[in-house]
Each structure stands twice: as C-alpha cells, then as structure tokens.
Design goal:
mainly beta; six-stranded mixed beta barrel
Length: 139
C-alpha cells in the first residue's frame, strides 16, 4: 500500500495537499492537521483560495476556533502519490486568528482524514516525527 509522508512540526502534524485551479494547474498548501476540526467541511483555507473554488457550498455555522456563519466552497484537491483526487468542501476564512505555524496556510480536518484508510503520526529513526496518509477510503 502506498503511503504519503509529511514532516511534523513542533506545533503539530502537517499534510501537503494540492488544490486544482480552474485553469488546470495545481496550488500546493501545507495544512495543519486538526482531527478536532469536525463537521461537513474538510479544510479551512484563506480567502485568497477563493480562486480555486469550482462551486459554492451552503454557508454553515461553526463553533470552536472559528465561530459564526462561514463561507464555504467546493474545491478539487489531490495527493498525487496516492492517486487521490476528489472534490471536497473548504471554509474560506481569515486564518490569522488560528495562529498557524510559519509556512502553514490552513487546516485539514477530520472530514478530510476520513478519505483515507489509515492516517496518523509515527516516530521515525532519526528521532523526529512524521504524519502519514495511506490508501483511499471507499465511498
């Protein structure tokens, strides 16, 4: 089974996800993995990611780090190593209140993680940690 691995940060786990533009290109985002981010949305992306939207999604009320009614859109995302390519829902919001680590542009939540058969963090031989995704869940 193919496994995609991503380096961990001291602040948490990250995953690299590519979002497909309407013109056919791909825009990579480094996302902080937050399994406590639950609900109908898979990602929180900055408002600049609106150019990646392929369709609107109904706005939703959220609670937690982001509160109130949130703008949501459908985006196509992929992880090439896993041959993963799907449309999922992203919240478009100002991510600055989330105090993300340097180089991280948004969040990937539990709805995204459940697209995979296995996911988690593991200790590697050099003493560091990494996050992994493997397989694609049956829908």
């Amino acid at each position: 089974m193919t496994v995609a691995c991503f380096p961990s940060l001291p602040e948490g786990e990250t995953a690299e996800v590519e979002f497909l533009s309407r013109e056919g290109g791909a825009v990579p985002f480094r996302l902080l993995v937050d399994c406590g981010f639950t609900g109908a949305s898979s990602f929180v992306l900055p408002p600049s990611a609106a150019v990646l939207a392929v369709a609107p999604a109904p706005d939703r009320e959220t609670g937690g780090a982001l509160q109130g009614r949130q703008t949501r859109v459908v985006v196509w995302c992929r992880i090439p190593l896993l041959a993963f390519r799907r449309p999922l829902i992203a919240i478009l919001a100002d991510v600055s209140p989330l105090k993300l680590p340097s180089g991280v542009q948004g969040l990937a939540g539990l709805t995204f993680l459940r697209q995979f058969e296995r996911w988690g963090a593991e200790h590697v031989s050099n003493g560091s940690w990494r996050f992994f995704l493997s397989g694609t869940a049956v829908q």
